[in-house]
Amino acid sequence: MPGSRAAESVSVRRVVVVGGSTAGSTAMRELRRRGFDGELVLVDPARGTNRPPLSKAVLAADMPDESVLIDHSSIDAQHVLAAAVGLDTCARVLTTADGAEHPYDALVIASGSTARRIAAAGQRGELVLRTLDDARTLRHRLTSSSSVVVVGGGFLGMEVATAAATAGATVTVVDVEPPLRRVLGAHLAADLLARAEATGVRFVQSTAVLVGEPVTGVELADGSTLTADAVVSCVGDIPATAWLDGTGLPTAHGIEIDMSARTSVADVYAIGDVAAVRSGHDVRRAPYWANAVTQARVAAAAILGQDVEDPIVDHYFWTEIAGVSVKAVGPLPVAGVPTTFEDAGDGHGILTWDGPTVVAYGVRRSVPKLRATARGLTEASV
User: Fold this and answer.
1) How many degrees, rounded to 5, is the angle at CA 311 between CA 11 and CA 48?
2) pLDDT, tens only, 257-282
3) Is Oxidoreductase among this UniProt entry's keywords (predicted)?
4) Closest residue by Cα to residue 255 from 264, 232, 246, 52
5) For residues 191 and 196, what is the distance between their CA atoms, to the nearest angstrom?
6) Are 93 and 103 spatial neighbours (Cβ–Cβ below 8 Å)?
7) CATH number for the segment(s) 14-114+237-303
8) Distance between CA 177 and CA 114 in Å, rounded?
9) Cα–Cα distances in Å, from 107 out to 97, 150, 215, 268?
């Protein structure tokens, strides 16, 4: 199976998990599900957050803010409400901001990432969306802003642009590349772009430098300036690895892991947004919810020396842009024009590409059914 190794003879009695959001909480639950009855320690100064709804339901005030917080009370774990600040891999001890030391038999790094910012040092007013507090702040600003500039035309940027347009603002998305093309491919990107433009969202292909103190707009490559009541940077994220300086674990890609979520250090695992999967000469970080879940399951099995049933990368993603839901199973981006597997009209339906990649475009379809369609296409091509 992908990422599997033969079961090892291990004696793990104390597992420390850094980060209690989707990856960390899933790893803890999976350890318990697989029979781990030893000591489980969660190191996180706050409750974990289920982040996908932040840019969708929370930003639109469609769900209670607290519903995205993750409850760890049923896991039977000690929750250390302090940030991890250091790691001695030789002594197998993690240090937290309160000065306490936490020994481990196995360590799971699920410290996530932080929003990438483009403001100058000390420049105030740049908005980002990464945490629940960010979502609350941004929701308030969108409801009180008549004009919004979004820097970055990826999934997050387009979801924020959709929310801003729905709130009634004039919205401009600025990106050096055509929006969504790098992540979805030309066909889907072009269709979603046209649908977003029909809602009033404007697109400008350019670099962007934040201007004003606090920020009042962006300067484009041609020297012109776009002013706005709110400027939101959606330009990616940075793996949260500063606390691991001196360990040899952080790289330019994040923390590199193998197909069993193991790092280069014995008994240290990394999962979720902080992790980058090495496959041959390729190292890739894919900070999506599905990967946080599958990597957590893989790590839990590997820690216990059990067979790993799950893949280290799960090719699944879901978004909703300009009123169109996009649920994809299979590798992205996709190239070329799709085959329409099921036609729902207005360009919507079940679309397929060789690979295979199956997309429910503007229609509701469960993930298991999409996976079944993908398996059927694979079997038919053999």
Assistant:
1) 70
2) 999 999 999 999 999 999 999 988 89
3) yes
4) 264
5) 9
6) yes
7) 3.50.50.60
8) 23
9) 17, 38, 41, 5
- Residue 210 CA to residue 220 CA, distance in Å, equals 9
Both structure tokens of 298 = 């893989």
Residue ranges of domains in the chain:
14-114+237-303, 132-233, 323-381
At what angle are helices 186-198 and 155-166 packed, to 10 degrees?
20
pLDDT 10s digits, 46-79: 989 999 899 988 888 778 888 999 999 999 999 9
Report pTM. 0.92
Residue appearing with tokens 């707009």: 217
Distances (CA, A) of 4 to 1, 298, 305, 309, 310: 5, 8, 10, 7, 8
In this predicted model, what pLDDT tens digit does every residue of 296-312 receive, in sequence order?
A: 999 999 999 999 889 99
Q: For residues 353 and 355, give the distance between their C-alpha atoms in angstroms, rounded to a whole number.
A: 6
| Residue of higher predicted confidence among 178 and 1 | 178
**If you classify domain 132-233 with CATH, what class do you get?**
alpha beta
Task: Indicate the residue type of 141.
Answer: R
- Rounded to whole angstroms, the Cα distance separating 81 from 61 reads 28
